[in-house]
Amino acid sequence: MSTTTNATSSTAEKAARQRRSITGAFVGTAIEWYDFYIFGTAAALVFGRVFYPDIDPAAALMASFATFWVGFIARPIGGLIFGHFGDKFGRKNTLVVTLLLMGIATALIGVLPGYAQIGVAAPILLIVLRALQGLAVGGEWGGAVLLATENSSAKKKGFAGAWVQQGSPAGSILATLIFLIVGTLPDEAFMSWGWRIPFLLSAVLVVVGLVIRLKVEESEDFLNTQKLNIVVKVPILEVFRVTPKLLVAGIFASVLGIALAYFTNTFLLSWTTGQLGIERQVMLNVLLATAILQFIWQPLAALIAERIGAMKVMMGGLLLNLLLTVPFFLAIQSANVPFIAVMLAATVLGGSAYYAMLATFLASAFPANVRYTGVSAAYQICATIFGGSTPLLAQWVLTSSGGNPWAVATLYASLVIITLLGVSALARAKKQAGIED
């Protein structure tokens, strides 16, 4: 009887540990993505006028998007720094630091004077704080994925990874809701102080996230590497030495998972509310609806993947996005809001099915003793090359082509094709390395 009772107790404790890890990873990641997304929204709607008012509006928008990219340039640096500490000293404490760093940087943006008050120092300080955001999120994503998946049973690792991915739509929903609320202010009030409210709210959210995250146990896989004394002194060197093919394939497998959100939430928001003349509040409502759809669909896609396999779900979602390219851009060109909403929702279904499984797919590619560094390096290097550059590059393509939407459509389709090739290459590299999903 006592053996049975102990086994039952152990199973219950493992299940509780799994729930706490998934919850802690999800909440912290949602807050970090909220902070990252509000910057993207503000870059599309506000920063050009507040921090770059002395140049042509089109150039100011490009400068705003360039500032947005700075966060992505910093992300692989954050991934390497925090990945190093996460692989040497543990996932949990490292993630507490990333959450604090993100919250402080975001709140400071909320009180940063504009160009009219302090001149050129304003955009310089904005760039510095954006870089700190990038460092924080660079260390956050990989650690959160590992905290959730490494504390979960083999059967539930895919579902646990998908819930970490829920932080992206959850952060997007919260960011869009807050901007919808402050967007109801008169334009003068919104541009002077209303846009600051979402940034200041981050301080409150970080406190909530810290309370939850501090209750989470350290990853079992990391504790095992300590017991076996296989902690690596310089994890990034080991990643390049042992798993270079997995790293490169992982970078390209992540492209659309990173680029799609910033194509829609930043570039498309600017394009539709500017050149196409759609009202700001209307387009924010469309983006909110698609974020809610993503939040609902991703866990369902993960459950489907448990039955038919992650690769089928990922490749199917990517192929759907590729097939939808022409109707998606026909919708944008029409400036018809219902048409845009329907096609955007369809692309979200395809993209988020792939995105739901990306975290677990990447995490399973690297050995536990360098996993934090490997996952972070692959995802964040991709973010620098393809994520932050997407709004800037799309805007450049649109401007240089004289507003031709099909030039932008070609860029979009290229991102999908690169991702398809990357996912396929990573699957082959994992198979050659003898790694099972």
UniProtKB/TrEMBL annotation:
PROSITE patterns: MFS, SUGAR_TRANSPORT_2. GO terms for cellular component: plasma membrane. InterPro entries: MFS_dom, MFS_sugar_transport-like, MFS_trans_sf, Sugar_transporter_CS. Residues 21-431 form the Major facilitator superfamily (MFS) profile domain. SUPFAM superfamilies: MFS general substrate transporter. One of its GO terms (molecular function) is symporter activity. Keywords: Cell membrane, Membrane, Sugar transport, Symport, Transmembrane, Transmembrane helix, Transport. The chain crosses the membrane at residues 34-52, 58-83, 95-118, 124-148, 160-181, 193-212, 246-263, 283-304, 316-333, 339-363, 375-394, 406-427. May be a proton symporter involved in the uptake of osmolytes such as proline and glycine betaine. Belongs to the major facilitator superfamily. Metabolite:H+ Symporter (MHS) family (TC 2.A.1.6) family. This is Putative proline/betaine transporter. It comes from Microterricola viridarii.
